[in-house]
């Protein structure tokens, strides 16, 4: 019976859509009758729009569509109008020329649950609150001084990884790189590692973070076809999002409370040893010294959450792809190995001071980032007012996506864009 109701409702929507298509569409936007021209658009289906044209890897599907319809396309994902930029010129206009206009973020039910109702840096609307939270992260975690202060952390964790690899005959690089990046981010942001500890009722931190990232990047049909939100309840998707949101929130709350207790206890017995330990374990500037501006507990949680969401998956996936291409190109690997031996002067390990001399390594990483950007589709934006991009009209509030994958493989810019080339090496 339920299936008949659903099919009947879809048939009704299809009929309404056909009636709308039969009516003439206005081509003017104001009283002056100025004609606007939307970007080219592939054919759409009723209700679904262009959703049926997206495969498992949306960035590849959009790259294929861009080859047919141009570097700036106007699509419709369900009821949501979408503009996709697949060229460097269009991306430059969106992210540089009109960056303030495109500073708005697109709403998502999953992001609202996992990221504190758009209160974190990555999804918060542009304004004073966003600038303050961004300042907390930049000053206390991302400034040159703070990044350099975590050098010992990076070197220690890399040494642990290398020792573990030497002791094993078979190495799972994916798991090893994920553990390395998680441990470095944990020690930098939280002051300690949590990869080997159970948290939130026995769930390991790595598993929790993996599921958190998976949900954050998942497709939610309710965002694009609102009247189908009820499907998430029947599939258990909504319950899963609520569960992970609570577990991750409990974990970060526990971490902040732990640091607060340590700092309060340390205030009465300050010694040189304690100060060194505090420097390593300080999180987000939440220290016993009075800051210029009081950093709230929630700002610390938001900052920590963004560090995990943006700093773990993006780092180890690039390392995975780099190793994959080196295995596929043994001559490149041999040349890189020779450079490491020359710069390291026969030493078993290379430190960060040596990296400035490793120009070939930098070229390999740049080529890896060109072919395999860690975020193929950049975080969607929306313009606060209508704007012209590449000669086309983009209405206010339109979901706007930049396909970094397509830009890095644009044949108009790169020779043999699908090949891992030694250009510039």
UniProtKB/TrEMBL annotation:
Family: Belongs to the cytochrome P450 family.
Compositionally biased intervals (Basic and acidic residues): 263-272
Protein's recorded name: Uncharacterized protein
InterPro entries per UniProt: Cyt_P450 (IPR001128), Cyt_P450_E_grp-I (IPR002401), Cyt_P450_sf (IPR036396)
A molecular function GO annotation: oxidoreductase activity, acting on paired donors, with incorporation or reduction of molecular oxygen
Source organism of this protein record: Linum tenue
Leader peptide range in chain numbering: 1-24
Region of interest (Disordered), ranges: 263-288
Keywords attached to this entry: Iron, Metal-binding, Signal
